[in-house]
Amino acid sequence: MPSRLFFDNLGAILTYAVVGTLWNAFTTGVALWGLQQAGLVAPRVQAGLLDFLLFGSLISAVDPVAVLAVFEEVHVNETLFIIVFGESLLNDAVTVVLYKVCNSFVEMGSANVQATDYLKGIASLFVVSLGGAAVGLVFAFLLALTTRFTKRVRIIEPLLVFLLAYAAYLTAEMASLSAILAVTMCGLGCKKYVEANISHKSRTAVKYTMKTLASCAETVIFMLLGISAVDSSKWAWDSGLVLGTLFFILFFRALGVVLQTWVLNQFRLVPLDKIDQVVMSYGGLRGAVAFALVILLDRTKVPAKDYFVATTIVVVFFTVIVQGLTIKPLVKWLRVKRSDHHKPTLNQELHEHTFDHILAAVEDVVGHHGYHYWRDRWEQFDKKYLSQLLMRRSAYRIRDQIWDVYYRLNIRDAISFVDQGGHVLSSTGLTLPSMPSRNSVAETSVTNLLRESGSGACLDLQVIDTVRSGRDREDAVMHHLLCGGLYKPRRRYKASCGRHFISEDAQERQDKEVFQQNMKRRLESFKSTKHNICFTKSKPRPRKTGHKKGLWMGGRTKTKVLGLLSGPQKDGVANPEATNGKPPRDLGFQDTGAVILTVESEEEEESDSSETEKEDDEGIIFVARATSEVLQEGKVSGSLEVCPSPRIIPPSPTCAEKELPWKSGQGDLAVYVSSETTKIVPVDMQTGWNQSISSLESLASPPCTQPPTLTRLPPHPLGMEETQVPLDMSSDPRSSFAFPPSLAKAGRSRSESSADIPQQQELQPLMGHKDHTHLSPGTANSHWCIQFNRGGRL
Amino acid sequence: MGSRSSHAALIPDVDHIRRETGFSQASLLRLYHRFQALDREEKGYLSRLDLQQIGALAVNPLGDRIIDSFFPNGSQRVDFAGFARVLAHFRPVDEEDATIRDPKQPEPLNSRMNKLRFAFQLYDLDRDGKISRNEMLQVLRLMVGVQVTDEQLESITDRTVQEADEDGDGAVSFMEFTKSLEKMNIEQKMSIRILK
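^ Those are the sequences you sent over. The predicted structure of the assembly is below.
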């Protein structure tokens, strides 16, 4: 329920609820009594004026359940909806009081009613309604306060919400106060704070559970109604009463609405026009509350109970079925202003705030303490005291409505973008903020939200601005640790992967370790005659350089998914972007080449980056440049030389799509193959292998640009092996033969194994020399060869 | 207030003002009394200082801008006519006005367009007809709490400008501004009932 609208129209709502219901009750009761006096109601209906008043009071209440059900279908404009709905909520107090008062009068007997009793009745109206509201507010406060501390026990949050709301209901019932009002005020009061405090999952859980429970309750009530209708022992029919009631409730409601609207329009800013009035009077549906009340009547005190029951059933059925069904065509026919379900835009939110401030200021200038003045005062009080008390510290810190809207909009954009299968990074103007410190809880991170929303892709939302937050720093530290401890993947492409400038010795050491592990595993698998060699080189590509600038938290998820290309280096890319203050239009995953280049230069800039990774020779850099130039062609890119990577990255979405991480992953498979095959190379071959690697390092060839050569890549390793592995042909071909498919599988599954750049480099030129005869694995190779277009780019 | 007519006569140019602003007699009178109350030294005009004395405006984020809007064209004083003119923007829109208005006459001050123009001028400080990104940033900075960092603010600004900007010039012109608010009920949001 939109609380802002509710309070804006509170005057109208209260008028209709209180005055309207009273009017309805009295006029209907009196009219029915008059009908009886006129003899149209059979005399077997023994009811006096008080009885009719009692009946009038219970039949006049507009039912919130029915109203909500019907109006949700119809989608009238919000003002109209909130007035009718608000009225139905608030008239509960009036109904309850009237009912009780009339009931007690009836029990006392009309002769004993004295003037003081009437006064007491009126006083009890205030007590019941205000008391119910107070109970609700107390529980709202409790609820908000407790949810503030549930950070570590998220699971109980929905439970808390349900229980405390229900407790509010029960308490009010116990004290004979208005229970509906209590629950309403509880909800209204705590909504803002609880929403800020509880986790996203809890919020979803509460919302949908409530909806389900509400549906169930509605169904049960109407089932009861239906069953009672069929059970004829419970009711007795009197045509005059029934028809009279139907006519009167419609007539008097319409009359009441017209009168009240006329009065209200003197005071309202935006008057309610005739069409609104028609809808309001037609939308006054009676429902289960009336039925429940009539069933509760005591037959001994009210002899006409059965007739009343029958009438109530008919009335409820009529209003819900006939009025409910026809209100939609009526609304259409009258061309009522419908609600426009526009997405909330940032502009609107911002300007609404502006207008609020302007109005408050103008009111001050005029010297009038109007609605806006008090609203302003309330907001200030809330901000200073209440929010601090009731909201979690982290939520409070960044509590700002404009920010909220912005945040939600971005998430919505991201989700819709992903759902369309696109790549988050490249949408122009999509600026996903990094997680503000408020969302220190993991589940509220954007990535988690996306996962929750069911988007298939585990996205790397490293995109765009990386706002520094505590979380970012934590992530940076973590990444730094990982970088230090993890095995550094070997560079896939000399050209592009400038990032992983592992120092030679470290590289060698790592190579040895890994190689040994791999050989061990390979032997085992050979023993089992399974050619599946699972390479466990699935470490994420950690950011080697300790980019203190902060790695975006998305880095972790990125590495999982995108592995090769993405990896933390994207962070590095993103970071300068962020620091440059320019929202990256499309980031990251696109061209490792460009990325790497920039990263390279970045690293060069950063003195604190691990020197070990600073690659040694210019040769490498030179190569990188070459490839980057290759990359530049056909792409809109900025200056390559200097670091600002983001600008380098071509913004065209199509490019981005081409460079979809998963696709590129497959492309890189071929590379993996090449790198992994070297691992198969027995130790004694390693030196020879390495020699060829180093020979290739000086090559400044842009083999990447030639897709054809790349497609030959997969077979290449085989060829290479064959040239380099004169011995062990028996095992090797088998291994190599078996290897590509298995590796392809493994690589695909992991998508993180990194290829060795030097190897690739050497492979590429060698490829040119080799013929394709080595393409023995045939189909298995070919099909992931082709996907190597990505690699080619590099 | 029985002697209303005599009071009304005290207001200089009352007829002219009435025609221009569309205020009723009672409203004008109320405004005039307020004007006199604000004008402590009885100068016959209001200066910035007088308006700044209003305490509540000091805690209003847009208080200064509103005060400035009373002093168009860099003047330092505002007389009652100017005072009423600015406040006329906030007069609730009358349905009857719209129908019987003579199309040749200029739009009444409280029309939707004029209300929007007033709001637009609050944003557009340099009066170049566009809200540049910088101006938007300033307004946002005023209105957003201190917890939002500058970078976040920049993102918000960019997105805001981008949402409204259609011709891609990086600034929001008046037409774009109007368009972005077409769904909003301006007549209600920018009106004060008391000024009917």
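Residues 1-6 of chain B have pLDDT under 50 and may be disordered. The beta strands of chain B are 46-47, 77-78, 130-131, 172-173.

Shout if you want it in another format.
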